[in-house]
Every structure is written in structure tokens, then in C-alpha cells.
Structure to design on (622 residues):
């Protein structure tokens, strides 16, 4: 099918947001993805950006579809050798994935901005969409749990997101500025999409960067969200558990309530048909379709349905 | 054969010195290797220590015997992916070798000394010998050439040591202190050995660290060198070319002249039998034997012959 001549800006974490980005990249001529960087961490002395990488690998057609992160068919010679040297290799990185971390870390240390390095990588991998870090400054999600405050990767990877979430802190976000091009991409797009990413730890930090929430509130673009909660459960990861822990309804309606004033339309799954009128009562229209995404064709199908409903 | 109950301290670069270290480790009960760190560099943002690693991999039985550096059978998935990301991957590092660089870099950045990290790696790899960096401070060999001053790895790897050497600078060496245990290992050993390493860029920086040359001059130990020049040629690398370029005789005699006052005995190859009396005239005894080393048994053979002649 021909690409739709619209400009779309998608706010995304990894996972579901990356899949929708993949579908959008196939569906439209002009795609910008604004990506959460508050999951970024320094691991083994290397600057890792898990959400940026998942979107990048997904758009390059290289993402590992089983794990949801890393590169399909990657090997693990380096990490195994690190274990042998006595390193606690709690954060798994494949050999090709490590190349991304090594080169990014070296370029950042040499003074490049994360947005520059991301643009370089996108060009090298032949990615047509613009991938924009939400900010070039350091923002670090920290998770308050009964065991104390944990860094995000500590909570997510080392503890396998099993701790009850009492609260979230986006350390550094007050001083962060939107990355180059982020605000313009939101105010000039035909459609701004909030991807089916975790509202708290993927979309939350993006919206917490001063200026981004306001840009979404004020953009003349159509604003469409895709619920990451289907049938009362997360498609992946701890979104449902966080909704519950933070006293929200664990459903697409709970998601809709988080985005009141920010969305003109919410896309929900067929399983959640019964929530339509309650969501409409919040002041947004609803598109009901199949949102549990399969391969590239299915991702493009959702992108096209969304854009058709939004126009 | 039973291990010889002597303590030996060996000064070494990579290459020939590492092979002799391997033989010594099999021959004696107590071995310390003091290793050149002036080849160290930051490559892709990682702290690489080529001579330390060659000795370490050789003693662990993992060295790549074809290249003379790196790990036998290592793969190159990461470096290939780095090239794909647009990095100029001029310095090849295998995947398992990269693990060493990543972990070392992270631990150094976290405040550990190079000597500590080296001891941790040695323990993890089951190496019984003590591997001591010549210093924990940064010393960087720079090579003056007709094309200007080059960093050592730039000269050695990127330019394949093809530039004429006009002079050498060991940047930072005046302020460097011998690494922990280095002086004690030289003054308390039964035998101190200068390995068959490049006298200028492997042994030279070690002796240039304030205090080390004096310790070698004054130690009560027997002091034995092994010539890296056989039949007027380098066993490996640019030692012969450097002797010529810096106006020294390109022979074991030329090597002997560099070490006058530092050695009681020089080990030379059978091919250089005719140099014995000229070397003896410099005030050192000579052991003539087969010095072009093969596998582990041959390395041990040379170590035992050397120690027998020294005692």
C-alpha cells in the first residue's frame, strides 16, 4: 500500500510502542518517534538506552521478537567472558547489542549528545524515521518499593519487576529540556500518538520533561493513544501491576483516565468493547480494533486503522 | 619435572616476554611478571592494556598463537557490528577479549587501580604467577616519526609499525611510581630476567619508571636477559628496525650494549654463537641456546636452562 502522506509523531517506550513505531514507519511518509530515556543506565561502565535501542532495532528489522529487547540471533561471547572474569553479569547484552553500547558510550564521552548519536545510528542502520530521545539530559527513573528506592533497571531487570511499586521518581527531570526537535515534532505533526507503552515509566517520563505535556495539550494535531492494557492485563511488563499498585483501575478505562486532556481518541482492543461508553464519557472518542500486535503487516494494519480513524 | 624452588621476577612486554613468562610459570614455584603498560590506550572509550593481556592470556593458556595477541578462537561479532554502526574499527578486539576491556574499564572508572584489576583477573583465570603492571599511573609511549608524533597504538596498529622511528617519548613516566610490589619483587628475587621483548618500547618504559632501573642495578639477584634479536632480526615486531633507526647494531650484541650494567648474563640464540666473546667483553656472561620458542614444553625448557645457567 502507498505511504500515507501525513506526519506522525509517536511517543514511545520499548515493547509495544516500538511495534507500533514499526507499523507507522511502514504506513506513513513522515514519522518521528520521541522515545523515553529515563530507563537509561550505566551498566558495566557503558551507557545503555534500552527503549531507544528497542525502537531502533525494531525499525531496522533486527529486534529479538522473543525477548522483546536486544537483537535477533545475537551471540553472548562477551558477557560469558565477563562472567568468567568475575563480573556479576546481571544485565544481559548480546555481542552485537554491546557494539551499540560501546560506540554510544565512547561518542557520549567524547562530547556528542545522545540525539546526535541516535541520528548517526539511525542513518547507519538505514532507518528512515526520526528517532528522538525525549531529552539529551540525564533523567533516571527510580522506583520506591517496600525494599527501598531502586534504580529502574535494578527494579526491572535485577528484581524482575516483582517489587510492589509505591511511587516513582524521575530524577533530574525538572532540569531536563526536550531534545532537539521534540517540541516541533509535536506541534507540527498531523497526528500525535501515545503508543501502547507503560503510562507510568515509559510515557510518564516523556510527559514529565518540562514543555512536553504542554506541547501535547496545545498541539493542533489530532492526539491518539493506544491502550497497553488489554482485557485487564498488560501486553507485556508491569503496567497492569503499576496501575493496581498506584490505585488506578486496571483496564483501558484506567489508562484513559490517566490521559484525560491529552487525547482526542483512544484505541482499545476488541476484548474491551464494554469500556467504550465509559471512555467516551471522559471526552475522547474510541476506536475498537485488534491491538495485540503480530508481525510487520499486522503492525502496519493497526497504524493505518488508527490514522484513518483519526482523520 | 618438579618446579624449581626459586623466586623469579621477569620484566616483560607482550610477545616473546609472554612466552618466556609461560615457560617460567611452569618451571618455578614463585614467579612475578612486571609488565609494560606504556602501550596502554583508550580505544572505543575502553582502557586497553595489550601487554598485560597478552601475558595474562598466555599464562591462562588462551592466547592466540597466530596473531600474538587476543584469545584463541575468539569471535568478532561486536567489532563487526561496530563497523556497521559507522565506527572506524581500526583496533581489532575479539568478543571475549572485549570482555576484558569492558570489565577493566568499568573497574578503573569506579576507582580501582590497574594492579588491583589485574590481580582480580589473574585470580579469576586461575593464574598462579603475580602479574604486576609496571605502574598504576598513566604512561603513554609516543613515537616520533617523519610523519610527526604518533601514539603507540597508532604507530603500531594503525600504521603497522612502518614509520621510521626518530625517537621515543614515554609521556608521564617522570611522575609515575612503580606499581605495588614491583620494587620488592626485583630486590628480593633470586633471579631477575629481562624477557625477549623490545628493548625500546617494552623494556624501555619499565626501566624508565623512576626507581626501577636503580632497583635492577642494585638488586642482589642474578640478572639475566634474553635477546629478542636472533640472527640480526626481530623474532616479532619492530625491535630490529628500531635498533637500526636509533643507530644501534642490529644484533644480540646491540641488545647487550643497551643492557650494560643491568645484566650479569645474556641468553642468545645458537645462530649468534659468533657474538659470544664481544658480549662477554661488555662484562656479562653468555648462555647460547635455542631461543626461538615453540610451545609450552619448549618455553619451559628455555626457562630451566636459563635458571640453571644463572645459579
Amino acid at each position: 500500500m502507498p505511504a500515507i502522506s501525513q506526519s506522525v509523531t509517536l511517543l514511545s517506550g520499548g515493547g509495544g510502542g516500538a511495534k507500533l513505531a514499526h507499523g507507522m514507519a511502514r504506513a506513513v511518509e513522515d514519522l518521528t518517534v520521541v522515545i523515553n530515556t529515563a530507563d537509561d543506565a550505566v551498566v558495566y561502565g557503558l551507557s545503555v538506552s534500552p527503549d531507544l535501542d528497542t525502537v531502533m532495532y525494531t525499525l531496522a528489522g533486527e529486534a529479538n521478537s522473543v525477548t522483546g529487547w536486544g537483537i535477533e540471533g545475537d551471540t553472548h561471547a562477551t558477557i560469558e567472558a565477563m562472567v568468567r572474569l568475575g563480573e556479576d553479569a546481571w544485565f544481559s547484552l548480546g555481542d552485537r547489542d554491546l557494539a551499540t553500547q560501546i560506540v554510544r558510550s565512547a561518542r557520549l564521552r567524547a562530547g556528542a549528545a545522545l540525539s546526535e548519536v541516535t541520528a548517526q545510528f539511525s542513518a547507519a542502520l538505514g532507518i528512515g524515521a526520526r528517532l528522538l530521545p525525549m531529552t539529551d539530559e540525564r533523567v533516571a527513573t527510580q522506583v520506591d518499593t517496600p525494599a527501598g528506592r531502586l534504580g529502574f533497571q535494578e527494579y526491572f531487570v535485577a528484581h524482575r519487576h516483582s517489587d510492589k511499586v509505591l511511587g516513582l521518581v524521575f530524577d533530574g527531570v525538572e532540569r531536563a529540556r526536550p531534545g532537539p526537535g521534540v517540541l516541533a515534532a509535536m506541534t507540527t505533526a498531523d497526528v500525535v500518538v501515545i503508543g501502547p507503552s507503560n503510562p507510568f515509566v515509559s510515557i510518564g517520563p516523556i510527559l514529565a520533561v518540562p514543555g512536553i505535556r504542554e506541547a501535547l495539550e496545545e498541539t493542533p494535531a489530532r492526539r491518539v493513544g493506544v491502550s497497553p492494557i488489554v482485557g485487564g492485563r498488560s501486553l507485556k511488563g508491569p503496567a497492569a501491576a503499576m496501575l493496581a499498585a498506584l490505585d488506578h483501575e486496571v483496564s483501558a478505562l484506567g489508562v484513559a483516565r490517566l490521559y484525560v486532556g491529552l487525547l482526542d481518541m483512544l484505541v482499545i482492543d476488541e476484548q474491551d468493547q464494554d469500556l467504550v461508553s465509559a471512555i467516551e464519557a471522559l471526552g475522547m472518542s474510541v476506536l475498537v480494533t485488534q491491538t495485540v500486535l503480530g508481525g510487520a503487516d499486522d503492525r502496519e494494519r493497526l497504524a493505518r486503522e488508527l490514522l484513518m480513524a483519526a482523520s
User: Anything to note?
Assistant: Chain B has one domain: 4-139+171-310. Chain B touches chain A at residues 44-46, 74-75, 77-82, 84-87, 94-96, 98-100, 102-103, 105-106, 109-110, 120-121, 123-125 (CB under 8 Å).
